[in-house]
Write a structure and sequence with these properties.
The protein is elongated. It starts with 14 loop residues before the first strand and ends with a strand. 0% of the residues lie in helices and 46% in strands. It folds into four domains: 117 residues, Immunoglobulin-like; 81 residues, Sandwich (Immunoglobulin-like); 166 residues, Immunoglobulins (Immunoglobulin-like, Sandwich), CATH 2.60.40; 80 residues, Immunoglobulins (Immunoglobulin-like, Sandwich). The N terminus is likely disordered. The strands form ten sheets. Strands 1, 4, 5, 7, 8 and 9 form a six-stranded antiparallel β-sheet that branches. Strands 12, 13, 15, 16 and 17 form a five-stranded antiparallel β-sheet that branches. A five-stranded mixed β-sheet has the order 19-25-24-21-22, with no helix packed on it. By secondary structure, it is mainly β. A hairpin with a 5-residue loop joins strand 26 and strand 27.
Length: 517
């Protein structure tokens, strides 16, 4: 039988196609056998040989896109002539198959069948998975933010880009589903310079890794912080305050009060915003910062501490000339004129009412309305709340477990500041809880459950939150301080900035990231 042999190689795949065509046989001659051991029929010349338009080698399979000029059944045989795949094939409808062939080089034969008649075979020589490794990607840094970096690479093939840190841990990934343009992969990093690596995975085969030098962050972005107390009194306003990038704009939103406001950060990096009257027992506050081409967000939960607590009422001043004086206009007849009225408000009354390990609640009161501001030893604002006359107001200040001294001032509605009141916060004398940690892998499988595990103070109440997925779950740590939470089916390239909070004697919070592995 005369044969014509055509060999081609698909770029980047390592595939040779051998097309074997038999000439019509001699009349009454026995049909010859091909190299795969099945008989060739003269009727086969009436069926077109299927064509393969795309080949992608996987770690243990190969993806083939097959077309035909006539409808029939696609038959795939291995190198021993054994049939291991039959599937329908229609004109004008290319079909993609992925036969499992293992990692070694092999040969496949494809024919089109109608009943007992098969076309001439198409023989495919498939290279091994090791010889089909994708080329290492070319990468560059597109964006450098204070807590992350965005790496760019060409979107010239279908697959997944993987970013790893200098310890080889996966910290970011991005899928390429459409060819063309630039693929963007974001990964969390600190402000210091570092070295990352980028690789490309196609059908389970990973390329060599390309080193990416990430420069140190050189912008002016300051991470957003909320330093004010999370406690408020029902029926009163509260004040949110903290630190951020000087001159930045903040977006503040409350989930139950229908409140949304844009706030400018001061030149000193401090910001504050007064809420409307709060009537719910719990209010979630979301604060977002946009500055220097960067952004971040913080969410806090405000919790009511109860109804207003009355303090001793202000004693009225007896007017001049009233009472049982001696007629010379002096108060109470004692010959002493009353003290002149001053424009400066009196220094606030202050005392420490709660002292956990990570901060303190300071009760403040005044005879005038305005705003209480608490400063640390470096005169940085660490707490702020509104003042209501005859009401004791608590403000939370974040301080360490040792003894510290802070000062509190009152700014009245005219912007006039009082003299400071010194407050000594005693050292914390209790037991500090063990920190909460995440011990499970940061990677997850798309569409599958993920179990997050970790450690904490024994019997602590654990809350796991995925803000980018709208998920939150609560559990209790064991007596050994171990905990686990099962996440829902995750379908994303990565979920960053997730949190775990443990509450026992103190409150501990840590962040963790999830990336598709």
């Amino acid at each position: 039988m005369n044969k014509k042999f055509i060999s081609t190689t698909t770029a980047g795949v390592g595939l040779a196609l051998a097309l074997v065509c038999a000439a019509p046989g001699v009349a009454n001659a026995a049909p010859p056998s091909d190299s795969f051991g099945h008989a060739a029929s003269s009727a086969a010349t009436q069926l077109p040989t299927p064509t393969v338009t795309q080949v992608t080698r996987g770690a243990d399979d190969v993806s083939l896109t097959v077309r035909t000029a006539k409808s029939g059944t696609l038959v795939v045989r291995d190198s021993a002539g054994q049939v291991f795949l039959r599937t329908a094939l229609s004109v004008g409808s290319p079909r993609t198959i992925a036969p499992a062939i293992g990692a070694d080089a092999t040969t496949l034969e494809l024919t089109l069948a109608q009943g007992d008649v098969e076309s001439e075979p198409l023989t495919l020589h498939i290279d091994s998975a090791a010889d089909s490794k994708p080329a290492a990607p070319k990468a560059s840094v597109l964006e450098r933010q204070s807590k992350s970096v965005t790496i760019g690479a060409n979107a010239d093939r279908i697959g997944t880009y993987i970013v790893r840190d200098d310890a080889g841990r996966t910290i970011g990934s991005a899928d390429v589903r459409t060819l063309g343009g630039t693929a963007r992969v974001s990964a969390p990093v600190g402000a210091a310079g570092t070295t990352l690596s980028l690789s490309f995975v196609q059908r389970g085969i990973e390329s060599d890794r390309t080193s990416v030098e990430v420069p140190a962050y050189s912008g002016s972005f300051v991470p957003l912080m909320v330093t004010s107390s999370t406690a408020f009194t029902i029926g009163h306003t509260a004040t949110l305050s903290g630190t951020a990038t000087p001159g930045a704009r903040l977006a503040v939103r409350l989930d139950t009060a229908g409140f949304s406001k844009s706030v400018a950060v001061g030149a000193d990096g401090n910001w504050h915003v007064a809420t409307p009257v709060l009537r719910a027992s719990q209010v979630r506050a979301d604060v977002q910062q946009y500055a220097d081409g960067d952004h971040d967000a913080v969410s806090v939960t405000l919790r009511a501490t109860g109804l207003p607590t009355p303090i001793d009422p202000v004693q009225p001043v007896t007017p001049i000339g009233s009472g049982t004086g001696n007629g010379n206009g002096n108060e109470a007849g004692n010959g002493v004129a009353p003290s002149p009225v001053t424009d400066k408000p009196a220094a606030p009354r202050a005392s420490v009412t709660d002292r956990p390990a990570d901060g303190a609640t300071i009760a403040l009161s005044s005879d005038q309305p305005g705003t209480f501001v608490v400063y640390d030893a470096a005169h940085r604002v660490i707490g702020r709340t509104g003042s209501t006359p005859t009401t004791r107001t608590g403000v939370w200040v974040p301080v360490g477990p040792g003894e510290v001294t802070v000062t509190a001032e009152l700014t009245d509605r005219n912007g006039v500041r009082s003299d400071p009141t010194t407050v000594v916060v005693p050292a914390f004398t209790g037991t500090v809880d063990a920190p909460v940690t995440v011990t499970s892998s940061p990677t997850f499988t798309d569409g599958a459950h993920k179990v997050v595990t970790g450690t904490s103070e024994p019997n602590a109440r654990i809350t796991v939150t995925l803000p980018g997925y709208g998920f939150s779950a609560t559990t209790t740590a064991s007596a050994e301080g171990k905990w686990s939470v099962t996440l829902p089916h995750l379908q994303a390239s990565g979920l960053l900035g997730n949190t775990v909070t443990a509450v026992a004697t103190t409150r501990q919070t840590t962040e963790f990231d999830l990336v598709r592995g």
